[in-house]
């Protein structure tokens, strides 16, 4: 089977061009890169806006050189919501939500479930409603079940339709809550932490493939951008059909992010597999590098 994959949550800013080549060879034709914590605390609004500009300009251009369509989600992430130096970026987020390539507000949600995170989460849900964008939600690494319950309460209070919400980093403890709420269920297949392929297949056997989305969450930590591929292979080995795999790895993430109206899945013009990239060649959307729709 030839896989086609949209990795719904991957931090390509942290990855190399070798990763892009490997992703394309494995069937990944599109990615979504959520704005997230870079590991080093940011100290000013300018460091955020430079990062957002890079996601929407340079990283899209870099991905296209390897045949991959790149999209982003934009937000003040939960971890940095607790730093008063970062809060001013909330005033900048709405204008970025109008830019080409933005397919959701995210990552939003909880890290430590503080009052500051409550406030920032609710504010950005309102921004999503105003911009008519879906929402990518980060569930906390600690107290995940309590954090998921709180997340779903806040989403309900916001009035956002649950089908416009993807709750990510789920596991066996909270998947039922998310599915019962009518939201999309996201799973990060990540070495040592989060989920692995075998546990993911077991959940798919229990809950089915509807509204289930698998991603690699590959970033600057010990991670593997091909975990989506490995999950698809594990699904096939467990008796799932080619169609089941296509639904989980392609049709489900496409259906979710298509709600933005900004998802681009056409092949990259001028790209030839196996040929070296040609920096500077124009491609559809490269005008973002020149500040389009700024």
UniProtKB/TrEMBL annotation:
<dbReference type="Pfam" id="PF01026">
    <property type="entry name" value="TatD_DNase"/>
</dbReference>
<protein>
    <submittedName>
        <fullName>TatD family hydrolase</fullName>
    </submittedName>
</protein>
<comment type="similarity">
    <text>Belongs to the metallo-dependent hydrolases superfamily.</text>
</comment>
<dbReference type="InterPro" id="IPR032466">
    <property type="entry name" value="Metal_Hydrolase"/>
</dbReference>
<feature type="region of interest" description="Disordered">
    <location>
        <begin position="274"/>
        <end position="294"/>
    </location>
</feature>
<dbReference type="InterPro" id="IPR001130">
    <property type="entry name" value="TatD-like"/>
</dbReference>
<keyword id="KW-0378">Hydrolase</keyword>
<dbReference type="GO" id="GO:0016787">
    <property type="term" value="F:hydrolase activity"/>
</dbReference>
<dbReference type="InterPro" id="IPR012022">
    <property type="entry name" value="UCP005295"/>
</dbReference>
<keyword id="KW-0479">Metal-binding</keyword>
């Amino acid at each position: 089977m030839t896989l086609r994959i949209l990795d719904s949550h991957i931090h390509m800013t942290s990855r190399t061009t070798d990763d892009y080549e490997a992703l394309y060879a494995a069937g990944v034709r599109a990615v979504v890169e959520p704005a997230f914590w870079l590991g080093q605390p940011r100290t000013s609004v300018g460091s955020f806006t430079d990062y957002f500009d890079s996601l929407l300009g340079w990283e899209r251009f870099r991905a296209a050189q390897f045949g991959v369509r790149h999209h982003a989600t934009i937000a003040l992430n939960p971890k940095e919501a607790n730093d008063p130096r970062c809060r001013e970026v909330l005033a900048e987020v709405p204008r970025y939500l109008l830019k080409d390539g933005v397919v959701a507000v995210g990552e939003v949600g909880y890290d430590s479930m503080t009052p500051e995170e409550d406030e920032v989460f609710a504010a950005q849900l309102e921004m999503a409603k105003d911009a008519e964008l879906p929402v990518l939600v980060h569930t906390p690494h600690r107290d995940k079940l309590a954090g998921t319950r709180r997340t779903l309460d806040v989403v309900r209070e916001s009035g956002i339709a649950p089908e416009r919400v993807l709750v990510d980093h789920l596991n066996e403890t909270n998947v039922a809550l998310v599915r019962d709420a009518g939201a999309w269920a996201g799973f990060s297949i990540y070495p040592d932490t989060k989920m692995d392929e075998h546990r993911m297949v077991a959940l798919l056997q229990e809950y089915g493939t509807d509204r289930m989305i698998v991603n690699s969450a590959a970033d600057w930590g010990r991670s593997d951008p091909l975990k989506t591929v490995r999950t698809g292979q594990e699904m096939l080995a467990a008796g799932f059909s080619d169609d089941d795999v296509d639904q989980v790895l392609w049709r489900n993430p496409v259906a979710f992010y298509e709600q933005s109206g900004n998802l681009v899945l056409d092949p990259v013009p001028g790209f030839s597999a196996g040929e070296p990239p040609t920096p500077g060649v124009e491609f559809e959307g490269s005008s973002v590098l020149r500040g389009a729709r700024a």
